[in-house]
Amino acid sequence: MVIYSQFGAQVGKTLAGFYSQQELDTYNPTFLRSRMIPEQFLNTHFVEVKQENLDDYLTARGVPWLVRKLISGKMQKGQFLMKPDGDGYVYNTGNAARNLEYRFKLGETFTDTGYDGKQHKITISMEGDKLKEVHFNLERDVGGEDVFFYSIQNGNLISTCEAEGNGKKTIWKREFAKKN
């Protein structure tokens, strides 16, 4: 068994007899990266500057016209701020009408209020170089999960969420810039 320090240097085989496999795995840099949110997502307040395909996304999700219009009016000027907090994170999101704060550990599912005011099971994890946020509405009968992917492109935070309806895939895309 090869053991690595947090910086990727080989430590040696002597530790194998003293530590469990789980403890040894924490020394593997690939394992560490999957358990941490990269700095580029942290400690920066991002505000929404552009949004594409929200109405198409909601249509694909089966949301009625009047409700889509109400949602579209509320889903503007979004914000994103994530900070480390002990062994977890604090995530503030929302807009002028509604702010949400989640306290979580990466990869662990928790129950909290979602963007629609309903109870959701939420999991925030890393998938490659993207931050992944999964919501499962506990009070909605149809629709399944909403899965948001966040990435950094040219210093801006990009959020995408896919929905499929009537045989057509729609991507709701939002772009956030650093708040001055």
TrEMBL record:
SUPFAM superfamilies: Lipocalins
Entry-linked Gene3D superfamilies: 2.40.128.20
UniProt keyword terms in alphabetical order: Lipid-binding, Transport
Keyword Heme set for record: no
InterPro entries: Calycin, Lbp1-4, VCBS_dom
Superkingdom of origin: Eukaryota
Molecular function via GO: lipid binding
Family: Belongs to the calycin superfamily. Fatty-acid binding protein (FABP) family.
Record's protein name: Cytosolic fatty-acid binding proteins domain-containing protein
Natural source organism: Ancylostoma ceylanicum
